[in-house]
Design goal:
Layout: H1 2-41, E1 48-53, E2 56-61, H2 62-100
Antiparallel strand pairs: 1-2
Helix pairs in contact: 1-2
C-alpha cells in the first residue's frame, strides 16, 4: 500500500513541476513577443521584416506582422492563465489527497 501512495505522491509532484515549467517557458515566449511588438509598433508599417514560420524565414512587412504577433501573444496569455488555473486546482487536489491519506512529508 505504501508504494501506491508513494507513486501517487510522485505523480502529483511531477505534474506540479511540469505545469510550473511550462508556465515559465510560455511566459518567456510571451515576453519575447511583447518586446518584438513594442519594437515593431515604433517602426514604419511598410518596412520589410522577416518572420519564422516553422523552420522557414518569410519576407513580410511590419503592418502584416503585428496582428499575427498580437494574436500569438494573446493566445500565449490565455494558455498561461489556463495552466495557472490547472496548477492551482492540482495543488488543491494534492493537499486534499495528502490530508485524506494522512501523508506527512519527512525532510532529510
Amino acid at each position: 500500500m505504501d508504494s501506491v501512495l508513494q507513486l501517487k505522491y510522485n505523480d502529483y509532484k511531477n505534474t506540479l513541476e511540469e505545469l510550473q515549467s511550462k508556465i515559465i517557458e510560455l511566459g518567456r515566449d510571451k515576453d519575447e513577443h511583447e518586446v518584438v511588438l513594442r519594437t515593431l509598433n515604433e517602426t514604419e508599417p511598410e518596412r520589410k521584416c522577416y518572420r519564422m514560420i516553422g523552420s522557414a524565414l518569410v519576407d513580410t512587412d511590419v503592418k502584416s506582422t503585428i496582428p499575427v504577433l498580437q494574436t500569438k501573444r494573446d493566445n500565449l496569455e490565455q494558455t498561461i492563465n489556463s495552466l495557472k488555473n490547472q496548477l492551482i486546482t492540482t495543488a488543491q487536489e494534492f493537499e486534499k489527497w495528502k490530508k485524506d491519506n494522512k501523508i506527512q512529508v519527512v525532510r532529510q
